[in-house]
Amino acid sequence: MISQLFKRRKPPETPESAPDIRSQRPRAGELRVRGLNETLFLAPLPVYTGQAQVSRRNFSAMNETYLELGGSNYGMVELGKRLAIMIWMVLFMAFIAPSFFVAYGMFFYPENFTDPVHELITGITVFSTISLAAILPIGGYVYGMLSNVRTLAKSYPVRFNRQRREVCYIDDTTHRVLIVPWE
């Protein structure tokens, strides 16, 4: 019994290192061990098509019969929130920040602020002049937002019919309807 405790055991077999993801595509359900890491692939990697990935939020209509991809403006709410934040930042820089600076100076350095109203007006003038420089980027952002809406309004969505397993595509230039099986 004691001899079993001190008997040299066989070292654990380390599995052969799996091929790199870039050299051999994984299969769904495959487990690859490399060093101390284990990678379980639930689905194969997507095939590179050269096109930008489409967000899940671009589904304009979805039910048990079909799924429409594109033709929606779901991202506009997020873009509108970003635009509102930019506008509030400009307003803060133009009007509220000078008020804070003058109030800080009045309370902590009263000898330097003999006429606080005049200092506040001067501060607002200077800060709003600097804030005018933000009009150009905000205008560019609004243009990009609205031009995207125009482009999406002119394009037709792609419809995937789940029951017939077909894809319906309408060409934007020729307006020709193309229905093909997706397999």
Q: What's a quick, concise take on this entry?
A:
40% of the residues lie in helices and 16% in strands. The protein has 183 residues and is an alpha+beta fold.
The secondary-structure class comes to: alpha+beta
Main β sheet profile: 5 strands, antiparallel
Oligomer description? single chain
Count of discrete alpha- or pi-helical segments spanning 4 or more residues: 4
Instruction: Kindly report the average pLDDT value.
Output: 79
Entry keywords:
five-stranded antiparallel sheet, 4 helices, 40% helix, alpha+beta, 183 residues, two-stranded antiparallel ribbon
Descriptive report:
This protein is α+β, with helices and mostly antiparallel strands. It has a domain at 76-152. 40% of the residues lie in helices and 16% in strands. The protein has 4 helices and 7 strands; from the N terminus they run H-E-E-E-E-H-H-H-E-E-E. The strands form 2 sheets. The chain has a 5-stranded antiparallel beta sheet, with no helix packed on it. A two-stranded antiparallel ribbon has the order 1-2. Helix 2 packs antiparallel against helix 3 and helix 2 (76-108) runs antiparallel to helix 4. The protein is flat. It starts with a helix and ends with a strand.
Write the layout of secondary structure elements.
Elements: H1 2-6, E1 31-34, E2 37-40, E3 59-62, E4 66-69, H2 76-108, H3 116-131, H4 135-154, E5 158-161, E6 166-170, E7 177-181
Antiparallel strand pairs: 1-2, 3-4, 4-5, 5-6, 6-7
